[in-house]
Amino acid sequence: MSGFFSRLKKGLNRSRESLAQLIPGSKAEKLTETEWQNIEDALIMADCGAAVADSLVQYARKARIPVREALQKAMLKKLAPATQGKTPTAQPLVLLVIGVNGTGKTTTIGKLATMFRSEGKKVLVGAADTFRAAAVEQLSVWVQRAGADMVRQHEGADPAAVAFDTVKRGYARAYDVIIIDTAGRVQNDQGLMNELAKVRRVIGKAQSDAPHEVWQVLDGGTGQNAMVQVERFREIAGTTGLIVTKLDGTAKGGIVLQLADTYRLPIRYIGVGETLEDLMPFDAEAFVESLLPARDVIEQKP
Ligand SMILES: Nc1nc2c(ncn2[C@@H]2O[C@H](COP(=O)(O)OP(=O)(O)OP(=O)(O)O)[C@@H](O)[C@H]2O)c(=O)[nH]1
Ligand SMILES: [Mg+2]
């Protein structure tokens, strides 16, 4: 098992263990109403949300196959829209990274820059989080480690101006990938959301088809609030894809199903730790294997 997969499994321990108590072995008799209800409750507690939990259980009740298998199928169906994003091909590729405070934007940009560099690409990162000097310093450490280049201005500079300069320079100097880091902002802060809309607009002035991708970073441990965050950021900044981080921590995992079901945006990557290797393309099958109890655990049941 890869280290990545084991960190994901470890992160989702709690959800998986509570399901392991409730999912019957494949030779079990028909489940009672209460037993189905308990499974549904466990799915809700795993952050799936009431509607998704209900729909998963409905599917399992109708399918004439063992419960674990039915849930696995139903979950993969829910995740299908999240796996359908085409790999972006623009050259240069302009990526705008957005999200609420502390979700993992800057760390994820460091990981992405490293990944693109390892594919031999020239990467330019724009420090459009100009709120705090420390934010620029943090980004600069990641960028240096990745062997990428960075555009920065003084603390308090207009983030849209930094984004504009980054995109202009990226095109002029033939970079392959241009990534813009932005300050964290809460989705109901109108002033900061307007500022984000401006960053996006001004990127389009530097290059009319940019940004090609707008990736929203979500903390996998925030639970239901992630839903509201996506709603609002999508409206303001035209989110095209999601990255869910911290699935190694206290996250319960089900939010990923709910996001896929509701917004049908591609989930581009997931993060399971703080180091460079801890970002992986989203793999629906591996994800469901981590959320559900292992097949042999269920089969050993009487
Ligand atoms: N465990 C874990 N921690 C993570 C992951 N991704 C990011 N972090 C940590 O989360 C914290 C915040 O990360 P940042 O990258 O600074 O988040 P940010 O969104 O840029 O924050 P702001 O710019 O302040 O909005 C840091 O301590 C990161 O190391 C992850 O996948 N797993
Ligand atoms: Mg940051």
The coarse silhouette is elongated
Average pLDDT value?
95
Order of helices and strands: HHHHHEHEHEHEHEHEHEEHH
Distinct bound molecules: guanosine-5'-triphosphate, magnesium ion
Ends apart, CA distance between termini:
27 Å
Class based on secondary structure composition and strand pairing? alpha/beta
List the helices and strands and how they pair.
Elements: H1 3-11, H2 13-22, H3 33-45, H4 50-62, H5 67-79, E1 93-98, H6 105-118, E2 123-128, H7 133-146, E3 149-151, H8 159-172, E4 177-182, H9 190-206, E5 213-219, H10 225-237, E6 241-245, H11 254-263, E7 267-271, E8 279-281, H12 284-291, H13 295-299
Parallel strand pairs: 1-4, 1-5, 2-3, 2-4, 5-6, 6-7
Antiparallel strand pairs: 7-8
Helix pairs in contact: 1-12, 2-3, 3-4, 4-5, 5-12, 6-7, 8-9, 10-11
The structure holds guanosine-5'-triphosphate and magnesium ion (MG).
Task: Give a verbal description of the structure.
The protein is an alpha/beta fold. 51% of the residues lie in helices and 14% in strands. The protein is built from 13 helices and eight strands. It has helices spanning 3-11, 13-22, 33-45, 50-62, 67-79, 105-118, 133-146, 159-172, 190-206, 225-237, 254-263, 284-291, 295-299; strands at residues 93-98, 123-128, 149-151, 177-182, 213-219, 241-245, 267-271, 279-281. An eight-stranded mixed β-sheet has the order 3-2-4-1-5-6-7-8, sandwiched between helices. Strand 5 (213-219), helix 10 (225-237) and strand 6 (241-245) form a beta-alpha-beta unit. Helix 10 (225-237) runs parallel beside helix 11 (254-263). The longest helix is centred in the middle third of the chain and has 17 residues, at 190-206. It is elongated. The two termini are 27 Å apart. The model has no long low-confidence stretch (mean pLDDT 95). The chain binds guanosine-5'-triphosphate and magnesium ion. Guanosine-5'-triphosphate is lined by residues 99, 101-107, 129, 135, 183-184, 217, 245-246, 248-249, 271-274, 278.
